[in-house]
Amino acid sequence: MPTEAELRHEVRQFLESLPALLADSDDPLERARIYLRARFDAGLGALDYPTAHGGRDLPRDLVVAYRQETSGRVPDEAGFGIGISMCLPTIRDHGSNELKERFLRPGLRGDEIWCQLYSEPGAGSDLAGLATRAVRDGDEWIVNGQKVWTSGAADADMGILLARTDPSVPKHRGISMLVLPMDQPGVEVRPLRQMTGVSHFNEVFMEDARIPSSWVVASEGDGWRLAVALLAYERSSLGAGGGRQPTSTDHLIDLARKRSVNTDPVVRQELARLHSQASIVGWLNQRSGIHPSITKLWRSRQGRLASSIAGRLAFPGGAAWDDGDEGEGWAYGILDSPAHSLGGGTDEIQRNTLGERVLGLPREPAVDRDIPFSDVRRN
Questions:
Q1: Which residue of 11, 17, 166, 188 could cross-link 205, Cys pair, CB 3.0 to 4.6 Å?
Q2: Superfamily assignment of 114-221 in CATH?
Q3: Is-above-0.70 flag for pTM?
Q4: Which of 120, 234, 328, 348 is catalytic?
Q5: Could you give the CA distance from residue 248 to residue 308 in angstroms, rounded to a whole number?
Q6: Is 30 a catalytic residue?
Q7: With helix as H, strand as E and coil as C, how does 69-103 read?
């Protein structure tokens, strides 16, 4: 096992080779693919994974050291982040050997893009109320249903799917997690245009879509436990620096200087608050055993404050800009800022999770908790 100093030196050498590899590509997805492939082949793409799957079995403190060295110096993972931060860790920790052999290495190398097929029109915060059905038919599962708010589905090769495999039991117990091939006739993806002008989210319709019978993660009916585990990976990733990230304090300090307001005591106080919140998130990520909802809440708070400061500094007289000028980037960040709180579960859901699972407070009442799903009245 390398020392921290040895790993940091190894990472710096890898970073020196990146500009030449990325020089010929401007496409964010392709740049991410090139970076992930080079990172994996250099032995840095799966630091905490078992050696059998291309990893190095390194402890958390060395993974943190890697993140510190690469922060702001590598391409965004673009559409690959969901797979690398959420789907693949779930398969690594809970999947069969067949699933690990089939999916871990291609996903970590950037050969396959993943999406997370969870939310439905009638099952958002009440995720366990999902109605998508998977029915066993010989050596396949036949899937019918609809998902919504699926990030990156238009580019995805594979999806981690939550589907109801047994409607005769209460809603939490009849769910299974399966791996859905996205490129098949029974899967239709419809982009949802956002106020930022892009279509990061999608609707996904499944009509007699097919899944090999062995592509169930863990076991049939174990989907809710796995769903909670994957959401923990997601919240941990968002808190640790994955997915959408708040505008950095350094960028906002530079903007304040350009606007000649860096000596304004109110502006300085707001920037100090942002720096403090970013430091708290960094310290939380260095501690083991911290519930991921805690870091997710702090990261959401940091994102809202950063966007608020950016709006006041970038557009002091009103939000207007010309295409291609600096204001366009600031405006995108401001319009996208609600996603810091909504993505990965709202702040209210995080607080409920902490109250029930950390503080041991009573769960919220639910009239359908012990009723077979098939008997629950739905609109």
A1: 188
A2: Butyryl-CoA Dehydrogenase, subunit A, domain 2 (2.40.110.10)
A3: yes
A4: 234
A5: 13
A6: no
A7: HHCCCCCCCHHHHHHHHHHHHHHHHHCCHHHHHHH
